[in-house]
Specification:
alpha/beta, Rossmann fold, 3 domains, 6-stranded parallel β-sheet, 3-stranded antiparallel β-sheet, about 30% helix, globular, EC 2.3.1.286, NAD+ binding, Sirtuin
Length: about 240
């Protein structure tokens, strides 16, 4: 086994509380594209002279709902948890205190069986009416003649329960994330560029013993000292630990 994988395994074994702080790169091996890598969704948009912070904002949704909901999307198979999700869940089920904080909205950690997951950017498991807050399953959302999702009661726009640009994460989730990182003795930062708030600031709540970064590209962690950097895919790294 690679020495860095062995080192990571030792760090996990030694730690009382492990916080796994993950971004889009955790789910790429499940077939979901990331955002800010060379082939990411936002990078593609910028190459087409589109500003993701505009197109994926609350303001744009309200002012241009038809364009927002009818953007061309790549068809992808229904994603399934990969080795990162499954190994973390398996560790937790075996009695290890693994706590997940994720920037992803895909729910793959929960699908793998994980019980402690904080979703900074919300999730896509439910949608809600922006007028009356009625909650809908994605498959039951009705659309009008312009293909805009509408509430059958209030006729308000129905949107995914995700955090868009121009919106703030849920205060409760944010505060719980701060507390969770502060309590940990091992922080694993994986599959994230750490370029947006609150992610890039939350990590500085860590006061524990070890910091590990698993990513395809180096990231800026500011003054937070990194004890171990593993360049590579997150799922492959956890598969190696599992084996």
């Amino acid at each position: 086994m690679d020495s860095k994988i062995l080192q990571l395994k030792d760090y996990i074994d030694e730690a009382e509380i492990v916080v796994f702080f993950g971004g889009a790169g955790v789910s790429t091996e499940s077939g979901l594209p990331d955002y800010r890598s060379r082939n990411g969704q936002y990078t593609e948009m910028e190459e087409q002279n589109l500003d993701p912070k505009v197109i994926m904002s609350r303001k744009y949704l309200i002012e241009n709902p038809e364009a927002f909901f009818n953007r061309p999307k790549k068809s992808v198979a229904i994603p399934e948890p990969n080795d990162a999700h499954k190994t973390l869940a398996k560790m937790e089920q075996a009695g290890k205190d693994i706590r997940v904080i994720t920037q992803n909205v895909d729910g793959l950690h929960q699908k793998a069986g994980h019980r402690f997951v904080l979703e900074l950017h919300g999730h896509n498991r439910t949608w809600y009416c922006m007028e009356c807050s009625r909650v809908y399953e994605p498959e039951e959302v009705e659309r009008d003649e312009r293909h805009i999702p509408r509430c059958p009661i209030e006729q308000g726009i129905v949107r995914p329960s995700v955090v868009l640009f121009g919106e703030n994460p849920d205060k409760g989730v944010l505060e719980k994330s701060r507390e969770t990182i502060h309590k940990a003795d091992l922080l694993i930062i994986a599959g994230t560029s750490l370029t947006v708030n609150p992610a890039k600031n939350l990590i500085h709540r860590f006061k524990g013993k070890r910091v590990v970064v698993i990513n395809n590209e180096e990231i800026d962690t500011g003054k937070l000292k990194v004890d171990l950097y593993i360049e590579g895919k997150v799922g492959e790294t956890f598969k190696a630990i599992n084996e």
